[in-house]
Design goal:
This protein is an all-alpha fold and 83 residues long. It has one domain. Helix content is 77%, strand content 0%. It is built from four helices and no strands. Helix 1 crosses helix 2. The radius of gyration is 14 Å and the shape is globular.
Length: 83
């Protein structure tokens, strides 16, 4: 399984709350590399689109982008603290 596919698999397990401790650690180690930021952004946007299809109240685009940016910034700050 290529790294991108492995990451997507682990992300799906995490989203389903069905991830083992070892898989959780592997996923967050992969996230810390920042190599998978595009996949994370796509997953967030997909989740937001699914939410819109399910009649969840609209989230303004600027708010969604701010949330994504805050997630990235928070992750990078955690990396700096733990390094």
């Amino acid at each position: 399984m290529c790294n991108n596919e492995r990451f997507k698999y682990l992300l799906r397990l995490y989203q389903a709350n069905n991830v083992s401790l070892a898989e959780h650690d592997e996923l967050f180690e992969m996230i810390a590399t920042s190599s998978y930021d595009q996949i994370i952004a796509e997953a967030i946007l997909t989740d937001l689109q699914i939410g819109q299809d399910e009649d969840v109240p609209d989230l303004p685009a600027h708010t969604a982008h701010e949330i994504v940016r805050n997630v990235y910034d928070a992750n990078k700050n955690v990396i700096k603290v733990s390094a």
